[in-house]
Phosphoribosyl-AMP cyclohydrolase
Amino acid sequence: MSETWLDEIRWTDDGLVPVIAQQTGSGKVVMFAWMNRESLALSYTGGYAVYWSRSRNKLWRKGEESGNRQKIVSISIDCDEDVLLLEIEQEGGISCHTGRESCFYRTLQDGVWQKNSPVLKDPAEIYKK
Amino acid sequence: MSETWLDEIRWTDDGLVPVIAQQTGSGKVVMFAWMNRESLALSYTGGYAVYWSRSRNKLWRKGEESGNRQKIVSISIDCDEDVLLLEIEQEGGISCHTGRESCFYRTLQDGVWQKNSPVLKDPAEIYKK
């Protein structure tokens, strides 16, 4: 496969690109993460989101442990070619490690971050071995 | 006003936080940018998005030149407290400097970034003085 499309991305000095994951259909923004070249190539060829974990410094196959994989519907790039937008189908309906649909579950109200959505599944249940 | 909510954000070493802007109603992700503490405080108190331009190293009052301001509907934060999601009402219906609704106007198809949406207004018209 030609990798010209990968070369067109303006990677950070660390070789990463920020990625926004958005649920297809509802349009809900569920997650923000990073990819490196390898994880993006794997995402595209495999059809499921693979990120780069900056904290663990390794590939992060989303849903590997929880089962909540993200099937990729489309990959878009912004005008500056340095941010990606993933349209995904979230398996299990849970993107966040807290057991919620979206990681963006707190909204500013009167100067306080207030929870806006419920825990759908106990993380202890999601991540048990 | 208490600034506790600003202290809860995990700013980068450069004092910034990544921000996703999403059109209210349609849910379309239109832009990705950065804010520093001052620009976020100004956004919240003023009701219109003010970003931090990393290329120009100064406050960027979105729409100041084009008139395409972003009225803030809500501000949400992610589970790690290091990314913001802005629900906005895009004045003029154009977020991108190319004259398109969204900056994410190219989608990967068969290994090529293909344009997915039209220019609504000629940038030369948008940015003329």
